[in-house]
Amino acid sequence: MKSMMRKSVVRAWIVAMCFVIVAGATVALAENNGHQTKPAIRSVAAPLQIEESIPPHVDPPPPPPSLVLPPPPPSPQAAASPRPKPEPKPKTLPIASGDISAYREMGAWVDVYDYAIRDQMDPTAAVDEMARRGVKTLYLQTGRWKEANDIVNTEKVNLFLDRADARNIKVIAWYVPGFGDIDRDIRRSVVAMTYRTPRGNGFDGFAPDIETREEVGGDRDRFNAGIIEYSRRLREVAPTAVLAAIVVDAKNNERAPARWEGFPWPEIGQMYDIVMPMAYWSVTKSNDCGREMDVASYMRQVAEKTTSLMGRSRPMHIIGGIADCN
For every one of its 326 residues, what pLDDT tens digit does the chain have, with 9 covering 90 and above? Predict the structure, then answer.
């Protein structure tokens, strides 16, 4: 009897344990299934939303036109600023094989003493008076070796050039080299040749005034060598420009041949296109402003003597001297 009861208790305990095991497994499975469901739904949720907004079989729409940016509008400052006026076309120096007409007509000479150093000439009034008297070319001195500036007085030079342009008068620049500093003389010559006013007006030609030996201490040989060196370098920097040489009076120099011995006449004829002898009949050839001399005959003699010394013929513009006598 006890044996049978003992067997029943064991069997009941086994059944109870099986029930607990089955129940625990069922709960664990249910919990595991719950944990797996949430991540599955979470991972699928985002793709489902994308598929709903852009179906897989439909191409994405093109970008809106606003993505193509138009060019930026001008700044207020740029829009308010007026367009600058085009600068006037600057004059250029005539070339050697071209126009030398500026040297053919009646000319008037103005030096730095007239408008900058001693007297205070009014450039506008002076040019107007020249035009009234039929002057076609103004020979304007721009500087000399002993001055501090390359151009003695730019303000008045501008007035001369601009007024001459308005009155249809050509302007030739002339400069007095000292031959003691060739670099300086070349620089100042180039400055004159390339000079432009704010309005764009410049010179129609250039001429060095070859006469002074003050800077070289009166040394004749150094003076003559300086003329050759200066002239050679001037031609190198302006190979096509019309260059005129203002030279001493070859006829008058017969009075002092030793002083002018070795003057480089052949080089003058070679390197310059126009020769301008200072045949000052007006003040140096008589006591009465040249009225007692045959000016036409004297000019012919100067031209012939100069041509002979150069060994070649060049166009010549002979300078008469002081206008008060003429």
Answer: 444 444 454 454 444 444 444 344 443 434 444 444 333 323 333 333 333 334 444 454 554 444 344 455 555 554 455 555 545 544 555 544 567 889 999 999 999 999 988 878 999 999 999 999 999 999 999 999 999 999 999 999 999 999 999 999 999 999 999 999 999 999 999 999 999 999 999 999 999 999 999 999 999 999 999 999 999 999 999 998 999 999 999 998 888 888 899 999 999 999 999 999 999 887 666 666 766 778 889 999 999 999 999 999 999 999 988 777 76
Residues 229, 119: Cα–Cα separation, whole Å? 34
Please give the model's pTM, rounded to 2 decimal places: 0.70
The phi, psi pair for 95, rounded to 5°, reads -85, 165
| Residue 46 half-sphere exposure toward CB, CA atoms < 13 A | 3
